[in-house]
Amino acid sequence: MREPGSDRLTVPSLTVNGDLGFADFTGILSGYTRRFSRIQDGTLVNSAFLGDVIRFGNDQGSSNPAKFGRDATPDAALGAIVGALPSLVQLDNKVDQTSLELRLTSKDYQPGGTPFTWVGGVYFAQTKTQVYDNEPVLGITAAFAAAGKDVNDPAVFAASFPGAFPGDSSYYSARHYKDKQSSVFGEFTYHASPTLRGSAGVRVLRASQHFTREGDFYFAGGPAPVPGVDGNWNAVTPRLTASWDLDPQTTLYGNVAKGFRLGSANRPVPLTGAVQQDLITLHLPGAIPTAFDPDSLWSYEIGSKSRLWDNRLALSVAAFYLDWKNIQQNVRLPTSGYDFETNAGNAKSYGVEFEARLRATDQLTLNAAAGVTHAVFKDDVPALGFFDPADPTTLHVHKGDRVQGVPSYSARLGFEYRFAASAAMNCFVRGSGQWTGASRGSLIAGDADYDRPSYFTADASAGMSFDRWDVTVFVKNLNNTRKIIQQPSIQSVNTAYYLRPRTIGVTASYDF
């Protein structure tokens, strides 16, 4: 099935600034509206699965064995027909958010004046998210009718029931999230001298969520009432910083801060036979959590920023360490196609980064950046499954396993050359190359996305400015890298993600 999508964002914002004499006031009222509709191919996760249910007369699709517990009469011919039918996963996301921040900021520090500067304020946000999921198996009702059978009869279709496939739809779900958040924040900075300063700040946050869901049709086991899930979270996130100007060219700094992510409700997963088999295969607990909690981390960073050689060289160097606890993990159930979030495991991440910019001549500027990151789990995480050495597809996390989605290194080299083509025209030429290291995309060793490769790409551009015009010609992915960089599973189908192919374009702007 083709997989088109439409994504529309609207982000209005109103900012009010004012000088109150003793401080500066800033008020920001902003909105965020998103309408994201898309189609995914559900043939494997829906049609092929249903074809097996019919072919073998197996009740692995039942979400209520007590009600739909008997096996049906196998029908290999009809199962083959249904297994080949096309199926759609029609997804529609709607997000509406409004936020308000009110902030006061003291006047800038002046030597000889008060040694304190500060910032303080409040933040409020309210978000409504709705996720609709409809999954028709196109032609399933007609296929049963052609075979002289009723798609709703559990005697001929295991776990079916009246109203299981209205309009050929095999599954319907509507999830509704109402989130509220409020926080108070503040930070004080003490200037011990014009060159030495330290800051202490904190944010106190309260958040809540109300979750409801409607579900129906075959894969949901019919219309089943799902109680709402309410969550409430509180967090206190402090931050400490210090910086010291060794001289007018070099500053040393250090930061310690705590961060966190809010928890949320899980979508209800029906305990079908396939889901239960997935939990057994992965040696996971028999109950899927109704919600997952926040996770948090402490970050520690030290570094320096320098401007050397008469400000021709700008150099930044930093080292960091992150201590991450109660990590929010996505667990995918490979056979049934469902997934859920849970909290499991702790991790640590540490590394170094540097960035340099050299003005080699009045016309030529060179820049470079690089970073190395080592992000691994601190402990075994048996809650994420049991590892079977004979089956590399089983899910488990061992101490020292790499955290998902963190490249082992990154690097960039670039240049910019500017020159005057005439008294009225200035020109430039730019080029850059980016290296991204290997990473992990999955917790399952046998998953196609388990090892994500390293890759390189380059960009270039050239342009000119004259009168009030700026014209630029650019080439992105100059080397036309076609390496597969990710292979996530979507609706139980392994997909291949590439970089956008070589793209050549022109931009023009006019300053009125």
Helix-strand layout with pairing:
Blueprint: E1 5-10, E2 13-19, E3 23-41, H1 43-56, H2 65-68, H3 76-83, E4 88-106, E5 116-136, H4 140-146, E6 169-193, E7 196-216, E8 229-247, E9 250-261, E10 264-265, H5 273-281, E11 291-292, E12 295-308, E13 313-325, E14 328-332, E15 339-343, E16 347-359, E17 364-377, E18 409-422, E19 425-436, E20 439-440, E21 451-452, E22 455-466, E23 469-476, E24 484-486, E25 489-490, E26 493-494, E27 497-498, E28 503-510
Antiparallel strand pairs: 1-3, 2-3, 3-4, 4-5, 5-6, 6-7, 7-8, 8-9, 9-12, 10-11, 12-13, 13-16, 14-15, 16-17, 17-18, 18-19, 19-22, 20-21, 22-23, 23-28, 24-27, 25-26
Helix pairs in contact: 1-3
Supply the number of helical segments. 5
Strand content: over 45%
Number of strands: 28
Q: From the alpha carbons, calculate the radius of gyration and give it in angstroms.
A: 29 Å
Biggest pleated sheet? 18 strands, antiparallel
Supply the helix-strand structural class. Answer: mainly beta
Average predicted local confidence, pLDDT: 91
**Proportion in helices:** under 10%
**Uncertain segments:** 61-69
Shape: globular
Query: How far apart, in Å, are the first and last alpha carbons?
Result: 48 Å
